[in-house]
Amino acid sequence: MNVDAKRLIEQDKAHHVHPQSNLRQHAEHGPTMITHGKGVYIYDTEGNEIIDGFSGLGCVSLGYHNERLSNAAKRQMDILPFAPTFYNRSHPRVAELGERLINLAPGGMNKVMFQCSGSEANDTAIKLLWYTNTARGEPERRKIFGRVRGYHGNTVATVSLSGQPHMHAKFGLPLPEFKHTELPNYYRFHIDGESEEEFSARMAAEFEKLILAEGPETVAAFFAEPAISGGGALMPPEGYWKEMQAVLRKYDIKLVSDEVVCGFGRTGNMWGSETWGMEPDMVSCAKALSAAFFPISALMFKDEMYADMMKNSDEMGTFGHGYTYAGHPVGAAVGLEALDIYEEIDLVGHVRKVSARFLEKCHAMADHPLVAEVRGVGLFCGFELMQDAKARVPFDPALKVGEMVQNFAHDRGLYLRAIGDRMSFMPPLIINEEEIDLATERFKDALDDAWEVVRNKI
Ligand SMILES: Cc1ncc(COP(=O)(O)O)c(C=O)c1O
């Protein structure tokens, strides 16, 4: 490491407080400092070339270098670097992006609001649910369901909605309106002999029990990622969405599909909700909307909800919600360019094509002694690590097996994410078959490295 790199790490260590990080580790060792990227590769100050098997944070869909996107940003900065969307004002790119997104959206969506992050999109969704329920004369419908291990953001409301205990403890959260139903991890939680469909029916029955206990007339919505991402790349079991949606319909509870990770091709369809036959009332998206080149997110919903918003706006004289950078011109320009690129290179078709190889290589790791279950769709795959796969005995958490695999993978030149003892593997959507071969080889080597350590400790 050269002197400049050391200085950067010291600067970062001294002043920069890192989100979602181990603060002690940062104070003692400083950060891994990524200096640049190209294609699916990132490069650190140690001179390592690493395949990004986590797409940054599930967002870098087109890889780390794209002149069309950087030119779109520069062009827009030169023409109009900022324009508010408050006070009935607009600008060309955001008008175009709104129409473009609605044309791509799952059925029934006709309105869109822009924000800068997935958290803000979901937070806006919560506020709109409360706002429109007031207009509909149902102000008591305020409770919102998420799922254990779901992840919807970090604002006070969206983190309450998320089912991540480490993000609640010590913050005095979740807020009382937010409830959580079960994590549909079939492998971990099925009863011996129970089929996936039976398991899904049981999940839906448990959900219905919770709704009835709260009082269905007090429940506004269920937020769900089509496949759970931040909670560990968990694909829904067979029949899950059919069963869950039947319960929602029965009690007139809205479904919000959080497509922040699944949106724009990750699962081999434009939307995760298409992959699993979900019929959402609202859709939030972010990340790949701009291929992660600029912070922008969107929340889409139906005309009937807009009509209720209109009632309140008429009464109050305005719709009292919004962020300064909502529909930022540069974000909108980059988003439009990203959507053009997706269409021109048929990104969804590419994901479908290469995911056959990706999933085949991932499944080939299923009989590794550390691995209990492999399950994926598109370029999105989760690995459950267990001491005894058959008896479903987890490793002693003190062994930190997931973290060990993550670290060995890094040493081998692959960035993967461990969520406890689940590994999440979701490379940039432009990855090709040779890169898939290389990435999965490195993953397998990292599992072998970890097994050498773990086998002597169990
Ligand atoms: C499914 C999902 N929803 C919402 C968010 C929050 O998005 P952001 O970090 O942009 O606020 C994330 C972040 O990873 C996510 O994975």
From TrEMBL:
<keyword id="KW-0663">Pyridoxal phosphate</keyword>
<dbReference type="InterPro" id="IPR015422">
    <property type="entry name" value="PyrdxlP-dep_Trfase_small"/>
</dbReference>
<dbReference type="GO" id="GO:0008483">
    <property type="term" value="F:transaminase activity"/>
</dbReference>
<dbReference type="GO" id="GO:0030170">
    <property type="term" value="F:pyridoxal phosphate binding"/>
</dbReference>
<dbReference type="Pfam" id="PF00202">
    <property type="entry name" value="Aminotran_3"/>
</dbReference>
<comment type="similarity">
    <text>Belongs to the class-III pyridoxal-phosphate-dependent aminotransferase family.</text>
</comment>
<feature type="region of interest" description="Disordered">
    <location>
        <begin position="8"/>
        <end position="28"/>
    </location>
</feature>
<dbReference type="InterPro" id="IPR005814">
    <property type="entry name" value="Aminotrans_3"/>
</dbReference>
<dbReference type="InterPro" id="IPR015424">
    <property type="entry name" value="PyrdxlP-dep_Trfase"/>
</dbReference>
<protein>
    <submittedName>
        <fullName>Aminotransferase class III-fold pyridoxal phosphate-dependent enzyme</fullName>
    </submittedName>
</protein>
<dbReference type="InterPro" id="IPR049704">
    <property type="entry name" value="Aminotrans_3_PPA_site"/>
</dbReference>
<dbReference type="InterPro" id="IPR015421">
    <property type="entry name" value="PyrdxlP-dep_Trfase_major"/>
</dbReference>
<keyword id="KW-0032">Aminotransferase</keyword>
<keyword id="KW-0808">Transferase</keyword>
